[in-house]
Design brief:
With 382 residues, the chain is of the alpha+beta class. Helix content is 17%, strand content 45%. The longest helix has 15 residues.
Length: 382
């Protein structure tokens, strides 16, 4: 018999992040659940692991009878949230029938023995460093839109991290978009087998999407550790770990133009707002089709934006400062908006060459210690 009493709020706070590492593929029943295990010092460990990423956390508990078990995560979460009192008792009998009780309410769920839970990786890395949560969170958000989804090239399904002596660079590319964000970080080396402290690795996009939800947007530090195959994030109350993508990242530097014949300086907000208006046409599903391309005509001191489909059209002008020839070029409106929404500067510099070459978007105030670069591939215009 296992019997544990939890504070309802603390248990909900622990279950919520654990849900991000629960499997929904139904390949192994144990990975659909949360693993509970009592300790000798009045706490209970909660762990979820979908064989790619996992959450490990300890919370305070009143342990009447110790042990370990696995219970379905989604059902448990819904039940705990509906419990009427602030104290929740969980009992598991010898046949692994799990009873969840509070006040006069009692739910029964089938559970599994703790021994059925898959072995998790050793949560201790060969290299480790600490970094500010808020800064890392913002940098991930500024490249996340360019991470590929289920690309045959495994490396593109994640973001490339490169760390060199206090500088952090993130790169993402999906074949249509490229995003680079680099900044000097208040980074503290804790352990490294390399005296120069140069690290590079690829973190899956799905892992980063969940990590952002777990981090705070403040100056609190978090420790990041690396093994040959895994990355481990030690946050204040929990440990989040994930497999790395074992592949070589693309040579992204070769597609970046060092010089462009056409350069434009403009307001990011004005460009974004104009494209949002154009989206009312480009994202309109007329006749069962969504036409998402927008035409950008750079002429002297004006950028003329236009789009049309079977149900209507839009035309908009915004002021610019341009050097070089005029150019008419088309883009997927959604791709442009994704980049502009996360630009960290109010004024941007756009570099262009021809109607078939990528647009490069940078900050006017780009500095070596704090820079971003977005590249968007154009579309052929009819």
């Amino acid at each position: 018999m296992i019997k544990i009493m939890f504070d309802k709020a603390a248990l909900i706070s622990a279950i919520a992040p654990a849900l991000c590492a629960v499997s929904d593929r139904n390949t192994l029943t144990a990975t659909e659940g949360i693993f509970f295990e009592t300790t000798d010092h009045g706490t209970c460990t909660l762990c979820s692991y979908d064989m790619e990423k996992g959450i490990h956390e300890e919370i305070e508990a009143d342990i009447i009878e110790g042990g370990s078990f696995i219970v379905n995560a989604n059902r448990l979460s819904r039940i705990i949230r509906m419990m009427p009192l602030d104290t929740v008792t969980i009992e598991v009998d010898d046949k692994y029938m799990c009873r969840i009780m509070a006040g006069n309410s009692c739910f029964e769920l089938h559970s599994l023995p703790g021994s059925d839970f898959p072995a998790i990786p050793v949560l201790q890395g060969n290299h480790s460093f600490s970094v500010t949560q808020g800064q890392l969170r913002r940098m991930i958000a500024q490249v996340q839109f360019a991470i590929a989804q289920n690309d045959q090239r495994a490396a593109l399904n994640g973001a490339f991290f490169e760390i060199t002596e206090g500088r952090l660079k993130l790169v993402a590319c999906d074949g249509n978009k490229l995003a680079i964000r680099e900044s000097r970080c208040d980074m503290e080396q804790i352990q490294s087998a390399d005296d120069t402290f140069h690290l590079s690795f690829i973190v899956p996009g799905k892992t980063l999407a969940e990590l952002i939800k777990l981090m705070d947007d403040d100056d609190d530090k978090m420790t990041v550790a690396l093994t040959r195959r895994h990355i481990i994030f030690f946050l204040e109350k929990l440990t989040f770990f994930s497999r790395l993508i074992d592949a070589e990242y693309i040579d992204y530097n070769r597609v970046i133009r060092k010089e462009s014949p056409i350069n434009v300086v403009m307001s990011r907000d004005a460009f974004e707002q104009s494209l949002e208006r154009a989206a009312l046409v480009t994202e309109d599903r007329a006749m069962g089709q969504a036409k998402s391309s927008v035409k950008c005509s750079f002429e002297d001191t004006v950028l003329h934006i236009s789009a049309a489909n079977l149900s209507g059209s839009v035309n908009d002008d915004i002021p610019i400062e341009k050097t070089g020839e005029d150019l008419l070029i088309g883009f997927n409106n959604k791709y442009l908006l994704e980049a502009l929404r996360v630009c960290p500067e109010d004024n941007i510099r756009i570099s262009l060459a021809t109607a078939l070459m990528s647009m490069q978007i940078e900050g006017v105030g780009n500095e070596e210690d704090d820079m971003f670069l977005y590249m968007i591939l154009p579309v052929k215009m009819s």
